């Protein structure tokens, strides 16, 4: 299986304005636009990468953060392999809402084992001088909510963005290996079916 | 307005029993206690019986009624198809409850093959029927009262309901509020039911008896689920997958599932009425698409020529036609948009507009002062205002920042954008600020270059777009469904392709519709497209034809490249800024003409486009050349009312949502 390229679907969730689209664009195109439009609807970009000898195509989904658009956003959660819960370190409310985003994701993504699902937490806008959320607070939250990896990122100056996505991929691959050991191969194939490029939430 | 499926419980009585009996082996079963209700489902009166311990609330179920015609159609299968129903129920175990709740024709003793678990065994006895389907109620006494229901289709047998804890009289009184119960001449225990709205019921039954029904019907026998839901869109499959997930995992509260279902049903309401028609009419020949040409934008001279000495606009229908054909030159926009949006009445004089402006200016600043004067302390206790303010700040910083009017730091354009959106929150606090609104305001402010005018023009535009932004996003759902109907007619093979790629619900058009192509076209092209659309010509919902035009240009690529769900979404998203407004408008107008001249146009389509409102066969676009004064004013220009803000466009926008 390692010779083939797997398609992994990751989804960026978090309050409006925390920088989800900027993180995605920084990672995929290595560009930053401070005045990027806020996202309407959903968008996604693909990025090929290699992690620990595995060829992976990351399909990164970006959504509109406002509560009002929930019903039109949530169908796209299904089939996600990893979820990047994002807040902005200069916006305490966006940090407080992490729990809600996690809940919303688990609820709509139809995650079989929520406690084992690979979440990665991103505290974005590290470049901003006035922080409202300390690194300790954020780490504490991650520890208490499922021992999630936490990265402080800056889409603006590219800090930790690639690292965070690589970690996300590692977490997913680790999940896979675990499942490979536990379940006969044909079942794994069924589970992996969404990976055969092109389909995701169908 | 398309209301949410509201269900009002009009009567409820617990402690009503069914006496289950097995005819063959006479195994004693416990009496089955349940709750009997009379409910109002969007105007349909129905009777529901649910055994206790039924986890699923019947109020969440589809109900046989006018708003879910296909469900009703299915439930009306005759006895021979009944067997097939129960097979379906086995293969769709988790949907079983739902199926059961609508299949009021189930004979309670019919399927007894033990495959059902205990929970299903109970819910098997649940039933619902519309009052209009009830032929009679027979009242029997056996130390307690029990009622026998006979539905109009004689094959139906519902279990007797035993009122061991009283309440039968109250129940019958409840029925009497909505139907006439009269004793049969030969049997005084039998009460014949006649519905108040019998005519309506009758016509509906006829509709189902129609030949067209057979096609739907067959499809239903194969797979009632896919037919019902597939008709709407594949997004429902997500929702049903989610529903299935619940059953397995027991982690989602039922009311949330109900929310999801509610959304589905909302969509279905609109669509189901069309379904039989589309099943019959497989392909309609639209004929050749007429070539149309665009014209030059309206100049300042043209505009002033349409003003009389007192400043009233004259020959408005012709003026609108010119604007539709070529748009406006930029110098005219600031004046003309106020009329097009309905802020200024067309027949107002210069003086009247001055008075209006004074009033509107006062009103604007009164509302602006309201949020300006809120202290930090107050705001701390007002989370909604706080949220609106925070999101507006973020979005203003992310709206058209490359446009000279909004670029750089501390650009006054940004302050105005912010202040107008905040004031709009005070104008319509229920709606407040929803993402996308800054996109709608930005071009208006750019053209007006005036805070007060921009605000009121924005208010007018929002009147048209309001439903897009409301909590349930009904406007979006309605438009996506309407667009589906148009596309199906325009190119069935493309439509089928989209359906086969799970894209039949056209989610990829979401951004187009939410903010009227604001992100798809260059800023200048947006101005052109919007002013053309605001003329209300050449038909209702012209923006949907614009969608059709764009998709028509992309369909070949989409199908040739065999794009799947994701690729279609990506492809459409990436069309942004690559489209040419004049090409699109030309094509959209052509499609409109093509549909207008089609003799077999389905009613649903002609109602979406508002053709039946026109004089039969007359095209409002033809009228301009003829001097005849009858020049088909599709929407009569509203008379002037200087104190009320004119909303002539509003009624047009919601015409199909009622």
UniProtKB/TrEMBL annotation, chain A:
The keyword Ribonucleoprotein does not apply. GO terms for molecular function: G protein activity; GTP binding. Belongs to the small GTPase superfamily. Rab family. CDD domains: Rab9 (cd04116). Keywords: Cell membrane, Cytoplasmic vesicle, GTP-binding, Hydrolase, Lipoprotein, Membrane, Nucleotide-binding, Phosphoprotein, Prenylation, Protein transport, Transport. It comes from the Eukaryota. It is a lipid-anchor. PANTHER family: RAB FAMILY, RAS-RELATED PROTEIN RAB-9A. This is small monomeric GTPase. InterPro entries: P-loop_NTPase, Rab9, Small_GTP-bd, Small_GTPase. It is an enzyme of class 3 (hydrolase).
TrEMBL record, chain B:
Residues 327-537 form the Rab-GAP TBC domain. Gene3D superfamilies: putative rabgap domain of human tbc1 domain family member 14 like domains, Ypt/Rab-GAP domain of gyp1p, domain 3. Residues 615-639 are annotated as: Disordered. Its main location: cytoplasm. GO terms for molecular function: GTPase activator activity. It holds the Pfam family PH_RBD. It is found in: Cytoplasm. Keywords: Acetylation, Cytoplasm, GTPase activation, Phosphoprotein. Signal peptide: none annotated. GO terms for cellular component: cytoplasm. InterPro entries: Rab-GAP-TBC_dom, Rab-GAP_TBC_sf, SGSM1/2_RBD. Acts as a GTPase activating protein for RAB7A. Does not act on RAB4, RAB5 or RAB6. PANTHER family: TBC1 DOMAIN FAMILY MEMBER 15, TBC1 DOMAIN FAMILY MEMBER GTPASE-ACTIVATING PROTEIN. Interacts with non-phosphorylated form of RAB8A; phosphorylation of RAB8A at 'Thr-72' disrupts this interaction. Interacts with ARMC12. This is TBC1 domain family member 15. It comes from Scophthalmus maximus.
